[in-house]
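Supplementary Methods, section 5.1.

A reviewer requested that the exact input to the structure prediction be made available. We therefore reproduce it here, unchanged from the version used in the analyses.
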Amino acid sequence: MGKDYVRTARAKGVSEVRLMFGHVLKNAMIPILTQSVTAIPFLFMGSLLMEAFFAIPGLGNYTLMALQAPDFAIVRAMVFLGSFLYVIALMLTDISYTLVDPRVTLE
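The structure derived from this sequence is encoded token-by-token as follows.
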């Protein structure tokens, strides 16, 4: 809020709402997007642990049962699913960086 471009926009007479959404929020979104993508693998692992702890039938419980009984096809499929979702999230983050900050370009 104390940066030069914010003070310049205030001096030009830009309204506070437009200043917040047009200038401040766009620059504040990059760390928020980065943190949201790094949280995705933790959410995936958290679902595995919650399903195992509370015996909830789901993909996490199914994966843990496959680890206990050596069913490598299921384990391989779940690892592929987790890594695929993570790569898709990284791609969406890179695309959203270009929408939020015009200085970032995809080549």
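The mean pLDDT is 83. These observations are discussed further in the main text.
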